[in-house]
Design goal:
By secondary structure, the protein is mainly alpha-helical. It has 8 helices and 2 strands.
Length: 199
Amino acid sequence: MTASTLNARDIARYFLANVDEEGGDNITNLKLQKLLYYAQGFHVALQSGQPLFPESILAWSHGPVVKSIYSEHKHLLWRPIARPSAYRVDGYPPEVRELLDTVSSTYGQFTASKLEAMTHEEPPWQNTPKNKIISLDLLSSFFSTLVEAGRRNQAVHGEPLWPTNSLRYQRRTEISNRMAAHRAKLRTLANKSPIAVDP
């Protein structure tokens, strides 16, 4: 499994498989929807607009929702979703595991209703007409703000601190992307500069 082949169901399975049931935690459909939203948002912000999964997130009345995942678990109503069977964590790239673990530890600590209330205060849901797709641009704009605040070690009002500086794989990708842009700029300059030839 590579980052480019993941879908929302793969991401949902990761969250469900890693829930701390012995610690009394569980994930309902409502909570799962919010974790998917936060995972997509931070991935888009950290990966130059690239989505983590291809499915759209809709602005429903109870907050952001991936319709296919909602439909899969709607029969449970407000009851917890069972852990998936035949799950392999090593099938996920390390940078994806790092991101999902960070979303779990940062946002998974909250109840489903708290997460719903938080998303209702955030621009991606607020600025999208009901039942319409929340755009990647809206996600990128808002979550980039949280990432930048995390770099300064300052939480945005009403949001937990996003621990950007501790994301080893994300930082490596970010530096690599910056270096690639710098190398491209140098190549352009080199191609424009005349080469001095001794007579």
